Known about the structure:
25 helices; alpha/beta; elongated; single chain
Amino acid sequence: MKKLEAHEVPLSKVFASDYEFTIPDYQRPYTWGSEQATQLFHDLYDAVDRNPDEPYFLGSVVLVKDAGEPRAEVIDGQQRLTTLTILLSVLRELSDDNKDYLDKLIWEPGDPIQDLASRPRLKLRRRDEEFFRKHVQDRGGMAVLENGAAPANDAQERIAENVNALRALLEQKSPEERFALAKTIVQRTFLVIVSTPDLASAYRIFSVMNSRGVELSPADIFKSRVVGALPEELKEKYAGKWEDLEVDLGRDAFADLFSHIRMVYMKVRARRELLQEFDSSVLSGFLPDCPAAFVDDVLEPYGQAYRDLLAADYQPVDDPTGINRWLRRLHRLDDFDWQPPALWAFTNHRFDSEWLEEFLRKLDRLGASMLLRRFNTHQRGQRIGQLLRELDEGLGLDAPALELTSDECAEVIDRLGGEIYSQWIVRKYVLIRLDELLSDPEALRYEPKMITVEHVLPQNPQRGSDWTRLFNPMERAYWTHRLANLVLLSRTKNAQAKNYDFVTKKTKYFTAKSVSNFPLTTQVLATERWTPGVLEQRQQNLIDILSEF
Length: 549
């Protein structure tokens, strides 16, 4: 039976011979910036003046550690242990009388009689280990940082930043205050050390504990499993591949990537948490025998495709213009359900531009139809799951789920003919798409946050105006919120001008350089009268245009 141990341990015993802390290469880099580091300092300094018999608890650390052995892999707690070591090292550098005592918290003294070399209490990942030892743990190393030592990556930059931030705070304190802080850290500050000899158990423990540090994401845990299963000589290489992709995408998008890969593999919407489903549906096919294949054959190609997809900047073919145009359109949808099949397409047909452009065209049509028909999350998940199954079966561009049935087309047209303005999620999407169809798509670059949807026939016309003469109450109620009566604007309007009669409104409300880029709006400027008959003809024309895409 695997033995779980949990103890409250003072820092004098944490940074001692019972523990040889190692940050495994599969862990994420050091992420605390000066805000977290200075907050830790202030928390500890506030404890100086408290009741001397009152302990100060700094949270928990989760380790993979065999009982009786000092070597301990840090699963949770890297940020605090690293920052505490930086703080102790700065205190040592500023101390006149206590350097040797503080040094023992940073370094395990050697024993020449037993042929034991001195070693640091904490070893960071191999990428950062030498930098941390040379500029933080070694005596005098901080002077090199002050003279402009060049960090090689973000983690090292944060280490240097926190050295300088903590040094600036401590230099403001007197020697007596720094000594009192050191005593508080060593004597009265405790960590809860939770250890188990099994990596999987350690992560299960971590998942149910509150952590003071930056939480591990599911991607971090998958990394530990994949990189941890590799032979020792490959760990650094594949940890580097993993981290390079995470940096390239950004942490949030990188986390989303795993959800999309899970959808591609499972072809159903998530029913349980990602940790469970990704492990059983994806990783189980690669672990423990071929972890490198997961990185080489799944993570990297899907990550590369996701980068192209997010940026709408696909480049592998000679002319990617059409593909990127469809990607920009897809990004206007109000959901991300289109992304897993797009990732499948980019991964399986990466260099076939003709196939990709046609696939994205059909995927955009499907996504737009689900938006207009107000599919809920469950309905979208079912349709996308069906599409992914058909793609895996080799149906490709002929996949039935990619097409709209005659009934579905009829429902879309019916929705387009309704009160589009009342559907606030739909209205701007439809108007922008319609405006694009009326123009040269390459000439327009839409920024939806800067665009408003406006009425020509006002919502509340003034009594006695031309609007009340041209439209009876039933006609106003029918046409006000329909497609034919809506235009796009991209400027701040005079609110009073909204109710002007048509001719005056064109001059004072619609006529401006800011609307000249919208063909949908310039059509209105070219119209002499705004009547129910004009709206009826315009409505039919616009729906016909949308029906063709």
